[in-house]
Amino acid sequence: MKKKYLLAAMVAMALPAAAQETYQDTKLVQNELNGTARYVGMGGAMEALGADLSTISTNPAGIGLFRSSQVAISGGLVAQQDATTTPSLSNNFGIHINGDKTNASFDQGGFVYSMRTGYKNYLNFAFNYHKSRNFDQILTAGNKLNNASQNKLTAMKYPYLTDYNINAVDACYSAMLNPIKDASGKQTGLDYLNGTEFLYGQYQKGYIGSYDFNISGNINDRVFLGLTFGIHDVHYQSNSLYSENLEKETSTDAYESLKITGTGYDLKAGVIFRPIEQSPFRIGLYVNTPVWYDLHEAAATDVSMFNSSNNKLDKGHAVDYDYKVYTPWKFGVSLGHTIDKMVAIGATYEYADYSRIDNRINDGGGYDDWGYYYDNSSSDDAMNSNTKRVLKGVSTLKLGAEVKVMPQLAVRAGYNYVSPMFNQGGYRDGSIESPGSFYATSTDYTNWKSTNRWTCGVGYTAGKFFADLAYQYTQTNGDFYPFMSYYDTANSGNNVIVDATKVNFKRNQVLLTLGYKF
């Protein structure tokens, strides 16, 4: 089979929809370790140490430890390790992905303005932008198929194929598969073809930009308080190609083009205190509200079937809709200590229960008596029940240290562990009575496991100027599935069972921060 190229999906018809799906949500809800190079170099474990612009988005009280004003800007390179843009299997069965493995990134820019209000008291105002999520990623997977295929899964859903319980992929296959009829001519099913092997390739890109506005201060240099209002700007795009080799010298291609945009907002509050007046040891506590996202998705899928004579059937569908997603609350506790102004040590623990994500359906809107527009939404109970089954609470541990080997030169190191978000055995259920399933334009999903991050860095100060450099290596392993398994208790021959394919995501980041204190 000759190589195919990753293209945007063709649009054949538009379908209305109004809610989101669990696996799509997970692209938006978790933040990455990013910000200033000092923060990244110390593994982000600065929620009790404070005095870094990046703490504005976790523990806002950290801004209260500034004793002078500061401006800083950060950027660098992000590179994916071990990614391939030309995955292949047997029989010259391959695809090509138009994606970049290395990308430049603008990661942070902000300032803090510090005012003395008393002998030991300060009132600080700050603004900071940082890229809380970098979506740049190439994902490829390939494996054998045994009595299973994407079109067989559609056939097994028959005779339940209606506009309200199939997705866009099913709609394409159901229009192309030959009908099975009984002796009276009544259609009883759809004729399918089993697969022998599959290849999948996806290139996703974009970011979530977070814009944080902070007010903070302290009481007698022992208690530090902070409040941050955040705005989140979502720009996500992906193009993917799923290909199958089928029996009878037939093959299929399923293209998807997906774009998610929108905004959200949240509040963050925190406190840092020194329990012992004569000691620099401090404790930080903070809470982040949900991010209340208002989003728009535009997606399309195009499915083609080819036979040995190069005959082709092709069907496409597109969706375009608005919806809301509310992320869970996040709680954190942090410890920090400094020794002789030469050593800083930090540790942070965060927890967020992602099974509590609230998928919401837009129910319409209007104008109130004052002329302001409002929109109504309600929880998608079916999808939220699925989210509780698939996702779980996530713990994040951050450790970091800084040592000044010279008054002007510091070296740093850090480590993060992020526990898995997905329950073992979780899957993308295409049978849920939810708009988020009805209008899905793909069937694949990945159950990502724990994330490990290792960081290091250096910092140099020259008068009021400073420069920091950090390196971060991130690795996450996962189990990829091209579609959900289906079990027919009455007829095991109808079973559609697909095994996991091991995948990983390895990323290297180099980050530079330049700043000025005044």
From TrEMBL:
<keyword id="KW-0732">Signal</keyword>
<feature type="signal peptide">
    <location>
        <begin position="1"/>
        <end position="19"/>
    </location>
</feature>
<keyword id="KW-0675">Receptor</keyword>
<protein>
    <submittedName>
        <fullName>Hemin receptor</fullName>
    </submittedName>
</protein>
